[in-house]
Please model this.
Amino acid sequence: MNASDTSASLLSVRGLVKTFPGVRALDGVDFDLLPGEVHALVGENGAGKSTLMHALAGVHQPDSGKIILRGQPVAFADPHAASRMGISVVFQELSLSENLSVAENIFANRQPVGPLNLVDWGSLYAQTRGLLDLFEMRVDPREMVYNLSAAQRQVVEILKALSVQPSVLILDEPTSSLTARESEILFGNVHRLKTQGVSCIYITHHLSEIFHLADRVTVLRDGRHVITCPVAGVSEEDLVRRMVGRELADMYGSRATPIGEECLRVESAGREGVFSDISFALCGGEILGLAGLAGAGRTEFARGLFGAEPLDTGRIHLDGQPVRIRGPHDAIRHHMAYLTEDRKGQGLFLGMTVRDNCVAPSLSCFATPRGLMDERAMTDFAEYHRVQFNIATPSTRQRVGNLSGGNQQKVLLAMWMGVKPRVLIVDEPTRGVDVGARSDIYHRLRELASTGVGILLISSDLPEILGLSDRVLVMRNGRLAGEFTRDQATEENIIACASGLAAPTSQATGVSS
Amino acid sequence: MEQTLHPKSPLIAKLERITSFREFMILYIIVLSVIGIAYAVPAFLDQANLSAILLAFSDQAIIAIGMTLLMVSGGFDLSVGSVVALSGAVTAIWLQRGVPVPAAIALGLGVGALIGLINGLVIAEIGINPFITTLGMMSLARGMLMVVSNGQNISGLPSSFTVIGQGSLLGIQYPIWISLALVVAGDFLLRKSRFFRQNYYLGGNEKAAILSGIPVKRLKVFNYVLTGLLAALAGVIITARLGSASTTAGKGLELRVISAVIIGGASLKGGVGTIAGSFLGALLLAIIVSAINLLGVELNWIDFVLGATLLLAVMADTFSSKKTE
Model:
């Protein structure tokens, strides 16, 4: 399509520029969305995807450039204006009110009303039920949002965006908290919306998703448009190269040193009603994958192992010695580290500096014998890891909340280096992290393993599990459901095991949805 | 982000960092108001007036140390005003019964520490929020005071006790020395010591602090005990200074101190604040009260002006932090 021709497009963007103090987030971006297409938007964190989306949704006002909707130039003063024009956004940061019901969230401020402007509850619940059925979600419209899982909340968020019957739906990493099954349903619905003439802009880090979902893909890098092309014509490697602007050598790396002695042994660990009878051993230098569906109890088990929540049963041995872990401080004293899956909520101190975050679990290592903090040692430590982890920040005095997701994740990992871990538990270490930072994190995990650290890798990202693990454990309904060596482990095997279906034979094509 | 665009020399960057501290902002305002007030009313700078200001605010400064600790860690304490009165009364009652001065003081301080312990255990172990817990304790402690004192002020205290509040060294009264020493020590510890620094982590993100192995419950209990103890100390000093324990001592003090701490840069959300900032916040409020007195403004305006000061400080802060983000 000609760059200046916008007649065929539903929504066009020409020469969009948006600057924030110190950064040119969008630098003359062009973008076209055709009627009824699903258009994937990819790029590393900081490439400008979110800024472009915010400009289209009326959250940010561009400094210059045009937004053209159905052939007319438009300017959105606020998100409400964009929504009235038929542009609806599913934000990555959930925007739900926890203390309201599902129905009231979906129809926030647009509840159907009867006489005297009173809410027509019957119609509200009926309409909500219709939307919930669309997503095969068996939840009562009266259910309070605080009772929902993260995945269910995401669905509610999507339904909220759909309830205004938009002509353009923007989805910002919608699958980051969905299970494989829920993602499939989402994809199905995106297809259904498409047949109804709704165009979608689909922002994602999971490149594999776009190939069976999107029609075209646009790559942004450093606030500039790199390429737009049909997905049929590109490979995942092409896209990655365009996104990072360089070749990424072997994403997952490979084992550099042999696996050592056993460093962690867990015997029949359990907690009433959550998980039970978990037994396994982890060796120094080994990366042990722990796969399973959301809700299988993996995070709960990891927290139990680390002492963040009590274990009802079970014994833990570290380097052959039985240990009692009554709280995270005990685990840390035994050189265990746990990277939570909830980076912002439970992992980092967002209002504090990179430096102060880096030393949080190991404060006593940075104190003089009199109990005073050694500022120099703290700064040196943070600086060292800033370089080691390739953390993009102007200084270690920067507040962590100002960093991108990938850099925050690196800080979270750096933070646990101070405890000199023997056993490192990482829970979803690359959730919401762009491909460049992900590659950095994988390399650090490999390096740690090669120094003899035993790593328990909890992840819902199967390529990550398969790419890094020496062995894979699968959890289902709170129990260990299977164990696979590196050679046995395939996506089909693991999905079958995690979902409780019979393991497919070698000819089978895996699990159909 | 700005740094990447305009590289600065390290010295200038360091200077900017130091002078951008909240404490400097308040210091500027204090200096400006002192100059302004002194110009209008030269008597403001008389030593008698200055030491009256410092004396009146010394007990607030002592309590502000504990309150800062609590607010940095994400809590706060409404019961300090009542603890001031109760501890003063307990000390006075035992003095009247002829108990030696150190023992009577210890009993007064013990009551404050005990109330802090109860606050801390209810908040940390049972998980009731600090507002409700300390609101209840505020009323409970005031009520206990009315019972033990029978609603009467207690006076006729020995001079070996009142000297603590009335004596002076180098022309400066003991209460001022005590509060300055505690503020300097407290500020140093909260900035430098590993133990006290844990409060910033606790207030910054409690869940992350737990996972980082910080003994969150113990820390909370400690903070409330220390705050109770400091409030009790202020109560003992006020009693010694006035020569009697009053049933209305410390009324409204909790809100005055919380205002000072917030003006000093702390936030109800936790994670930020320094004792030096709180000290300066308290000093600013004390100067304003003194100025109202000296300028002959009707005293009824005091609460109005203090409230306006708090709101202006918080609004200025919100405005400037929005601009930098």
Remarks:
- Confidence is low (pLDDT under 50) at residues 1-5 of chain B.
- The CA atoms of residues 266 and 273 of chain B lie 4 Å apart.
- The domain at 52-324 of chain B is CATH 1.10.3470 (ABC transporter involved in vitamin B12 uptake, BtuC).
- The interface with chain A takes residues 1-5, 17, 192-195, 197-198, 200-201, 204-205, 207-215, 271-272, 325 of chain B (CB under 8 Å).
